[in-house]
Protein backbone atom coordinates (compact mmCIF):
# COMPACT_ATOMS: atom_id res chain seq x y z
CA UNK A 1 0.00 0.00 0.00
CA UNK A 2 1.27 3.47 -0.75
CA UNK A 3 2.48 5.41 2.22
CA UNK A 4 0.29 8.23 3.36
CA UNK A 5 1.79 11.61 2.74
CA UNK A 6 2.94 13.23 5.93
CA UNK A 7 1.30 16.56 6.67
CA UNK A 8 3.62 19.46 6.09
CA UNK A 9 4.63 21.21 9.30
CA UNK A 10 3.01 24.56 9.85
CA UNK A 11 5.76 27.13 9.69
CA UNK A 12 5.46 30.56 11.20
CA UNK A 13 7.57 33.62 10.66
CA UNK A 14 9.72 35.20 13.33
CA UNK A 15 7.75 37.95 15.00
CA UNK A 16 10.68 40.35 15.34
CA UNK A 17 11.58 39.93 11.66
CA UNK A 18 7.99 40.58 10.67
CA UNK A 19 7.96 43.80 12.71
CA UNK A 20 11.18 44.94 11.00
CA UNK A 21 9.68 44.28 7.58
CA UNK A 22 6.52 46.11 8.64
CA UNK A 23 8.61 49.23 9.22
CA UNK A 24 10.43 48.96 5.89
CA UNK A 25 7.25 48.38 3.92
CA UNK A 26 5.55 51.32 5.63
CA UNK A 27 7.44 53.66 3.30
CA UNK A 28 5.50 54.45 0.15
CA UNK A 29 6.31 55.97 -3.21
CA UNK A 30 6.70 59.74 -2.81
CA UNK A 31 7.73 59.60 0.85
CA UNK A 32 10.79 61.59 1.86
CA UNK A 33 11.14 61.10 5.59
CA UNK A 34 8.51 60.01 8.10
CA UNK A 35 7.96 61.17 11.65
CA UNK A 36 7.81 58.56 14.38
CA UNK A 37 4.12 59.29 14.88
CA UNK A 38 3.38 58.54 11.23
CA UNK A 39 5.37 55.30 11.33
CA UNK A 40 3.41 54.25 14.41
CA UNK A 41 0.13 55.00 12.61
CA UNK A 42 1.10 53.05 9.50
CA UNK A 43 2.60 50.04 11.27
CA UNK A 44 0.34 49.93 14.34
CA UNK A 45 3.46 49.41 16.45
CA UNK A 46 4.24 51.36 19.59
CA UNK A 47 6.84 54.11 19.25
CA UNK A 48 9.36 52.47 21.61
CA UNK A 49 9.31 49.29 19.50
CA UNK A 50 9.80 51.26 16.29
CA UNK A 51 12.75 53.16 17.75
CA UNK A 52 14.39 49.95 18.96
CA UNK A 53 13.96 48.20 15.61
CA UNK A 54 15.18 51.24 13.69
CA UNK A 55 18.47 51.08 15.60
CA UNK A 56 19.08 47.65 14.07
CA UNK A 57 17.97 48.85 10.65
CA UNK A 58 20.39 51.79 10.89
CA UNK A 59 23.30 49.40 11.49
CA UNK A 60 22.62 47.76 8.14
CA UNK A 61 22.05 51.03 6.29
CA UNK A 62 18.38 50.27 5.65
CA UNK A 63 17.07 53.21 7.67
CA UNK A 64 18.53 56.67 8.37
CA UNK A 65 17.51 58.84 11.31
CA UNK A 66 17.66 62.52 10.49
CA UNK A 67 18.69 65.27 12.91
CA UNK A 68 15.06 66.32 13.35
CA UNK A 69 14.09 62.79 14.46
CA UNK A 70 12.40 61.70 11.25
CA UNK A 71 13.27 58.46 9.51
CA UNK A 72 13.92 57.69 5.85
CA UNK A 73 15.09 54.69 3.86
CA UNK A 74 18.86 54.29 3.83
CA UNK A 75 21.38 53.77 1.06
CA UNK A 76 21.34 49.99 1.46
CA UNK A 77 17.63 49.95 0.66
CA UNK A 78 18.42 51.92 -2.50
CA UNK A 79 21.19 49.45 -3.39
CA UNK A 80 18.88 46.48 -3.01
CA UNK A 81 16.24 48.19 -5.11
CA UNK A 82 18.69 49.05 -7.87
CA UNK A 83 20.05 45.50 -7.90
CA UNK A 84 16.52 44.16 -8.26
CA UNK A 85 15.63 46.52 -11.08
CA UNK A 86 18.86 45.94 -12.96
CA UNK A 87 18.87 42.18 -12.48
CA UNK A 88 15.26 41.92 -13.59
CA UNK A 89 16.03 43.74 -16.83
CA UNK A 90 19.37 42.06 -17.48
CA UNK A 91 18.65 38.50 -16.52
CA UNK A 92 16.96 37.41 -19.74
CA UNK A 93 19.86 38.85 -21.76
CA UNK A 94 22.85 37.91 -19.64
CA UNK A 95 22.09 34.46 -18.25
CA UNK A 96 21.89 32.68 -21.65
CA UNK A 97 25.26 34.22 -22.57
CA UNK A 98 26.80 32.95 -19.32
CA UNK A 99 25.38 29.47 -19.79
CA UNK A 100 26.77 29.31 -23.31
CA UNK A 101 30.19 30.60 -22.24
CA UNK A 102 30.42 28.11 -19.37
CA UNK A 103 29.50 25.22 -21.65
CA UNK A 104 31.98 26.24 -24.35
CA UNK A 105 34.90 27.24 -22.14
CA UNK A 106 34.36 24.69 -19.33
CA UNK A 107 35.03 27.51 -16.86
CA UNK A 108 32.70 29.52 -14.60
CA UNK A 109 31.10 32.47 -16.37
CA UNK A 110 29.87 35.42 -14.34
CA UNK A 111 28.57 38.97 -14.64
CA UNK A 112 29.66 41.64 -12.15
CA UNK A 113 28.56 45.19 -11.46
CA UNK A 114 30.24 47.80 -9.27
CA UNK A 115 28.79 48.90 -5.94
CA UNK A 116 30.99 51.58 -4.39
CA UNK A 117 34.31 50.09 -3.36
CA UNK A 118 33.09 46.55 -4.00
CA UNK A 119 31.93 44.47 -6.94
CA UNK A 120 28.75 42.45 -6.87
CA UNK A 121 28.31 39.10 -8.59
CA UNK A 122 24.93 39.53 -10.25
CA UNK A 123 24.68 36.33 -12.33
CA UNK A 124 26.73 33.18 -12.69
CA UNK A 125 26.88 29.91 -14.63
CA UNK A 126 29.04 27.23 -13.06
CA UNK A 127 31.87 25.33 -14.67
CA UNK A 128 31.09 21.62 -15.13
CA UNK A 129 34.32 20.82 -13.29
CA UNK A 130 34.01 20.09 -9.54
CA UNK A 131 36.98 22.40 -8.87
CA UNK A 132 35.66 25.93 -9.41
CA UNK A 133 35.04 29.32 -7.81
CA UNK A 134 32.64 29.40 -4.86
CA UNK A 135 31.33 32.95 -5.36
CA UNK A 136 27.55 32.99 -5.65
CA UNK A 137 25.14 35.57 -7.12
CA UNK A 138 24.70 38.33 -4.56
CA UNK A 139 28.20 37.96 -3.11
CA UNK A 140 30.36 41.08 -2.81
CA UNK A 141 34.07 41.04 -3.61
CA UNK A 142 36.71 43.78 -3.24
CA UNK A 143 37.64 46.25 -5.95
CA UNK A 144 41.19 44.93 -6.10
CA UNK A 145 43.55 44.41 -9.04
CA UNK A 146 41.75 41.37 -10.42
CA UNK A 147 40.70 41.46 -14.07
CA UNK A 148 37.03 41.91 -13.17
CA UNK A 149 37.65 44.79 -10.75
CA UNK A 150 40.04 46.51 -13.16
CA UNK A 151 37.48 46.40 -15.97
CA UNK A 152 34.81 47.89 -13.71
CA UNK A 153 37.18 50.60 -12.47
CA UNK A 154 38.80 51.57 -15.76
CA UNK A 155 35.65 51.66 -17.87
CA UNK A 156 33.30 52.95 -15.17
CA UNK A 157 33.73 56.61 -16.09
CA UNK A 158 34.64 56.45 -19.77
CA UNK A 159 33.96 53.82 -22.41
CA UNK A 160 37.35 54.32 -24.10
CA UNK A 161 39.76 55.70 -21.49
CA UNK A 162 43.33 56.53 -22.39
CA UNK A 163 45.81 53.85 -21.42
CA UNK A 164 43.10 51.18 -21.14
CA UNK A 165 44.46 47.64 -20.79
CA UNK A 166 44.36 45.20 -23.67
CA UNK A 167 41.11 43.29 -23.67
CA UNK A 168 40.10 40.79 -22.52
CA UNK A 169 42.11 41.40 -19.36
CA UNK A 170 43.64 38.32 -17.69
CA UNK A 171 44.93 38.17 -14.12
CA UNK A 172 45.92 35.32 -11.85
CA UNK A 173 46.35 35.01 -8.09
CA UNK A 174 45.07 38.48 -7.14
CA UNK A 175 41.96 38.00 -4.98
CA UNK A 176 42.84 34.35 -4.35
CA UNK A 177 46.28 32.86 -5.08
CA UNK A 178 44.66 29.87 -6.76
CA UNK A 179 42.15 31.71 -8.97
CA UNK A 180 42.50 33.36 -12.37
CA UNK A 181 40.00 35.42 -14.33
CA UNK A 182 39.48 36.83 -17.81
CA UNK A 183 37.19 39.86 -18.13
CA UNK A 184 35.56 42.13 -20.71
CA UNK A 185 33.41 45.28 -20.26
CA UNK A 186 29.77 45.24 -21.32
CA UNK A 187 28.24 48.55 -22.40
CA UNK A 188 24.73 49.86 -22.88
CA UNK A 189 23.26 52.86 -24.66
CA UNK A 190 25.67 55.77 -24.90
CA UNK A 191 28.56 53.39 -24.25
CA UNK A 192 27.74 53.47 -20.55
CA UNK A 193 29.35 50.62 -18.65
CA UNK A 194 26.79 48.04 -17.53
CA UNK A 195 29.13 45.48 -16.00
CA UNK A 196 31.94 43.01 -16.52
CA UNK A 197 31.56 39.67 -18.29
CA UNK A 198 34.11 37.20 -16.96
CA UNK A 199 35.46 33.68 -17.02
CA UNK A 200 37.03 32.42 -13.79
CA UNK A 201 38.77 29.22 -12.83
CA UNK A 202 41.75 27.68 -11.07
CA UNK A 203 44.98 29.40 -12.04
CA UNK A 204 46.43 26.00 -12.90
CA UNK A 205 43.74 25.61 -15.56
CA UNK A 206 43.05 29.19 -16.68
CA UNK A 207 46.68 29.86 -17.56
CA UNK A 208 47.92 32.72 -19.74
CA UNK A 209 47.99 30.33 -22.69
CA UNK A 210 44.45 29.09 -22.07
CA UNK A 211 43.25 32.67 -21.54
CA UNK A 212 44.59 33.52 -24.97
CA UNK A 213 42.61 30.66 -26.47
CA UNK A 214 39.39 31.75 -24.72
CA UNK A 215 39.87 35.49 -25.29
CA UNK A 216 38.21 35.69 -28.75
CA UNK A 217 35.16 33.80 -27.48
CA UNK A 218 34.74 36.09 -24.47
CA UNK A 219 35.32 39.21 -26.57
CA UNK A 220 32.70 38.16 -29.09
CA UNK A 221 30.17 37.37 -26.34
CA UNK A 222 30.73 40.74 -24.62
CA UNK A 223 30.44 42.70 -27.86
CA UNK A 224 27.28 40.85 -28.87
CA UNK A 225 25.75 41.40 -25.44
CA UNK A 226 26.68 45.09 -25.56
CA UNK A 227 24.94 45.44 -28.93
CA UNK A 228 21.81 43.78 -27.54
CA UNK A 229 21.85 46.26 -24.64
CA UNK A 230 21.97 49.25 -26.99
CA UNK A 231 25.68 50.00 -27.33
CA UNK A 232 27.25 51.04 -30.60
CA UNK A 233 30.08 48.55 -31.08
TrEMBL record:
Q: Biological process (GO) annotations?
A: negative regulation of DNA-templated transcription
* Matches recorded under SMART domains: HTH_ICLR (SM00346)
SUPFAM superfamilies for this protein: GAF domain-like (SSF55781), Winged helix' DNA-binding domain (SSF46785)
UniProt entry keywords in alphabetical sequence? DNA-binding, Transcription, Transcription regulation
Give start and end of each IclR-ED domain. 76-231
HTH iclR-type domain segment(s): 14-75
Give the InterPro entries listed for this entry: GAF-like_dom_sf, HTH_MetabolicPath_Reg, Tscrpt_reg_IclR_C, Tscrpt_reg_IclR_N, WH-like_DNA-bd_sf, WH_DNA-bd_sf
MF annotations from Gene Ontology:
DNA binding; DNA-binding transcription factor activity
UniProt superkingdom: Bacteria
Q: Please identify the protein, giving its name as recorded.
A: IclR family transcriptional regulator
Give the species this sequence originates from. Methylobacterium terricola
Give the classification, highest ranks: Bacteria, Pseudomonadati, Pseudomonadota, Alphaproteobacteria, Hyphomicrobiales
